[in-house]
Structure formats: C-alpha cells, structure tokens
Design goal:
Low-confidence stretches: 1-27
Strand content: 25-35%
Shape: globular
Structural class: mainly beta
Number of strands: 17
Helix content: under 10%
Number of domains: 2
Order of helices and strands: HEEEEEEEEEHEEEEEEEE
C-alpha cells in the first residue's frame, strides 16, 4: 500500500514523532504561560522587515493547541498582546488549556495578526482581509502542562518549543490535496505572503539531509500555489519540502 507524506518545513519534529497525548480527564485541565520568554528560551518576535513587533494592542496573539499538528484549535479565551517590543504576554496570568490534562504535551502554534484597531477579531478574518499575520512554527510542548489544583501546585508550562531569535514561520506550509488514478500527486504550498520564489525538493528516504533532491524552482509564486508530481508505481513513499529562495 502506498503512503505519501507532506512535510511542513520548520516543523521537523512531525517527521519522527507520533506521540499519543493524554487528554483532559476528571482530574482537571493543564495550565500554560502564553509568553515568548522563559527558562532556556528567549524568542523575540520580528515582522518580515526584521523589526521587533511594537508593544501595545495593535497585534493579537493567540495560542492554538492540538493532539496532532493538523488538528489545532485556538485557546480563544486567553489572547495576549505585546507588553514590550518583541515580547508578548509577559506578566499575564497562566491560561487553562481546555481538553488537555496536567502533564500532557500538546502540539502548539502561536498565531499573531494585526487587528486593525480591534476590527479584525480572529485569525481567519486576518487572512481573508489581507492584513499582516504571522504564524509560528508548529512544535510539541517540551514541558508538560502545569496543574494549579494540587498541593503543591505544579507550575504552569511555558512555550519551551518556541525557539528564537524569531519564531515566526516564514517558510511555506504544505498540504496534500489529491492523488489521482493516473499516479499524479498534487500538493498545495501556502505562505503568509505571495510573490516569493520557492524551491520544491523531494525525497524517498529521510535518513540524511543529502537525500533531498531539487525538483523545481517556482518564481513569483502566489500565496497559495499547487504543484503536481508524477509518482512511480513502485515508490513506497515520497516526502516533500518547500523553501523560500533568494
């Protein structure tokens, strides 16, 4: 039976990790600090121009969590703003993560958008309106969620997988669209901005970085770009990655 895997670059733990997570039960729900600085990490946030996102309420920060990278939902009741240039949520209270028990390690992504004076109220609206929006890489929480209901209290987790100096994901994300009966695989590449040059690479073996083979270079690619790749009948698997190129 053939299998096809699409690899979002910058989310490489997806390649090798398939950890099953324990969801919330009768013992309560876990806690987390939604901020980009903590023990062992300092992930200041810059826009595409390289400047730190300014302090204030112009940008909304929202944490998305899930049991798997393709099944994220927002912790929409616990949004944050930038408390200092490049830093969000510092000094804010811990947040409860619905659906995940203390000690669990959900997959996480931080999504940031310019709320246009409060008129853009969610991430999907930001994308539709074409205002600046920035997703982080998807990562699995390195430290288990805290537990505020026991004594002594287990401290709230921090975003330990959100690495610096700029955790915003400027590389494309990939999704498998369809596999046709004539052995053609179609993949969609999505970026937060269009008109970029992209390099598509393929591999059938992930044991070494040198196994990635350039397949094509696309100039002036739109924000959503679909490419089709013919698949040999005897291929057990095919992996893809897409990179921005100068």
């Amino acid at each position: 039976m053939k299998t096809f895997r699409v690899i979002p670059i910058g989310i490489l733990p997806v390649l090798l990790c398939a950890l099953f997570l324990t969801c919330a039960d009768a013992h309560g729900q876990g806690s987390i600090l939604i901020q980009n600085i903590g023990p062992g990490y300092n992930a200041t946030v810059q826009g595409p121009d390289g400047a730190l996102i300014p302090a204030g309420n112009a940008y909304t920060v929202e944490l998305w969590v899930g049991v798997w990278p393709d099944a994220l939902t927002p912790v929409s009741e616990e949004r944050r703003t930038f408390t200092a240039p490049g830093y969000f949520g510092v000094g804010s209270p811990q947040a409860i993560v619905p659906g995940f028990s203390p000690g669990s390690h959900p997959w996480c992504q931080v999504r940031i958008w310019n709320n246009q004076g409060g008129t853009i109220t969610n991430y999907a609206q930001a994308i539709s309106a074409g205002v600046p929006y920035y997703p982080s890489r998807i990562f699995q929480l390195g430290v288990g969620l805290g537990n505020p209901t026991v004594t002594p209290v287990v401290p709230a987790a921090f975003l330990s997988g959100l690495m610096g100096p700029n955790p915003l994901d400027q590389n494309p994300q990939l999704r498998l669209i369809r596999f046709t009966s004539d052995k053609e695989l179609t993949v969609r590449s999505t970026t937060s901005s269009g008109s970029s040059s992209l390099q598509v690479l393929t591999s059938t073996n992930l044991s070494s970085p040198s196994n990635w083979t350039p397949w094509s270079v696309v100039t002036n690619a739109p924000a959503e770009y679909e490419f089709a790749v013919p698949i040999a009948t005897n291929e057990p698997a095919r992996f893809f990655r897409v990179l921005r190129v100068p």
